[in-house]
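Chapter review: from sequence to fold.
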Amino acid sequence: MTPQKRLFDLVLGLLLLLPLGLLMGVVALLLALTQGRPVLYGAERMRAPDRPFTLWKFRTMRPSGRDSGVSGGDKAARITPAGGILRRARLDELPQLFNILKGDMSFVGPRPPLRQYVDACPETYAAVLKSRPGVTGLATLVFHRREEALLAQCATAEETNRVYMRQCIPRKARLDLIYQRRRSLCLDLWILAATLARVARRG
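The token string follows.
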């Protein structure tokens, strides 16, 4: 990450801290009232192939002691009513503002992967994770809806992982590497604006 990109993340993050902090407080209260505690969900993600961190989200699923892998159709029944609303509007990702301020993430970059996929595809992620992971990115804009559709059809965790590794990881990696080659402040601003527009339409 360049010093300019880190400065951009810090300045924008601090500007958003008050308004998003108030919104997070409202969301946390509503979740506590409707689905109980815990309100937040912390999961290990990889900042670099050898650097894990805890990514924070609002909890949108009923807890399970056997949770692993990405979310597919096999986990759909665990999504709470409030969680479904948060996911559609991407409000579940608001706590990642603190991951950005800490420096584990950027506003724009590849989505941070689970360790199991980094271990399974080391060469791919050695290249992709040269960019700091982000809340949104080129792959999110271009492929996210297709990824959701593919994974929604999966009935088991094994099928979800197989589809994700064979069909999603290679396509997302190609887009992430295109971003890596062309990244600039202007591109980051365009991706952020396009993401907000898409979220507004879905909301």
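Two observations follow directly from the output. Helices lie at 3-34, 81-89, 96-102, 115-120, 122-128, 138-152, 157-182, 185-202. The longest strand covers residues 40-48.
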